[in-house]
Design goal:
By secondary structure, this protein is mainly alpha-helical. The chain has 8 helices and no strands. The protein has helices at residues 2-10, 14-36, 39-56, 66-88, 108-120, 123-134, 139-146, 150-168. The N and C termini lie far apart (40 Å). Residues 112-164 form the RNA polymerase sigma factor 70 region 4 type domain.
Length: 173
C-alpha cells in the first residue's frame, strides 16, 4: 500500500501525497521530538520535513525502506536546526536525547554528566550513540540512516566509548 502511495504521489497525485504525509507524520514528529526533546522544535522540524518531502520524493528510488529515508531526512532537519541554533546561541547544542535508554547511569547527576559528555562528542560519534543507544536501532539500521556501513557505525561507537571513558573517568556500556 505504501509503495502504491509513493508511486502515485511521485506521479503528481495530490491525494496520494496527502495520504502519504498523513500516514507518516506521527513517525516524523516522534523522531524529531526524540532528538530535540522539545515539542515546539519537533513541530517545526516535522513541518520542514513535510515540505522537503514534496521536492525530495522524486529522488526516492525505493531501493531502501521509506521509513529509513524519512528517518534520515528528519535527522538531517534536526541537524540543520541544531547548527542554526548553535549559531544563534553561541555554541549550545539544540537537542538533547532521551537518556533513559542508556543503562549505564546510576543517578540523575551521573545521567546529566553522561549526556553532557555525549553532546561533546564529534557529530559522527554522537549520531551513532544516539541512534543505537537512545533510538534502539541496530547497527544495520543506524548505518542505513547515516549512509555508511555497519562497521563504520561500530567504529564510531567504539571511538565514542573510548572518548566517554576519558571524559567520565570510567567505562561506559
Amino acid at each position: 500500500m505504501e509503495a502504491d502511495l509513493i508511486r502515485r504521489a511521485k506521479a503528481g497525485e495530490r491525494q496520494a501525497f496527502a495520504d502519504l504525509l498523513t500516514a507518516n507524520y506521527d513517525f516524523i514528529h516522534a523522531v524529531a521530538w526524540k532528538w530535540t526533546r522539545n515539542r515546539i522544535e519537533a513541530d517545526d522540524i516535522a513541518q520542514d520535513v513535510c515540505l522537503k518531502i514534496a521536492t525530495a520524493l522524486q529522488g526516492f528510488r525505493g531501493d531502501g525502506q521509506f521509513r529509513g529515508w524519512l528517518y534520515r531526512m528528519t535527522l538531517n532537519a534536526v541537524r540543520d536546526r541544531s547548527r542554526q541554533a548553535k549559531r544563534e546561541r553561541s555554541g549550545q547544542d539544540a537537542w538533547i536525547s532521551d537518556p533513559s535508554q542508556m543503562p549505564v547511569v546510576q543517578d540523575r547527576a551521573e545521567l546529566d554528566a553522561l549526556w553532557t559528555a555525549v553532546q561533546s562528542l564529534g557529530s559522527k560519534q554522537r549520531d551513532a550513540v544516539m541512534l543505537v543507544y537512545s533510538e534502539g536501532l541496530s547497527h544495520a539500521e543506524a548505518a542505513h540512516v547515516l549512509g555508511c556501513t555497519e562497521s563504520t557505525v561500530s567504529w564510531h561507537l567504539h571511538e565514542a566509548r573510548k572518548r566517554l571513558k576519558i571524559l567520565l573517568g570510567r567505562d561506559v556500556a
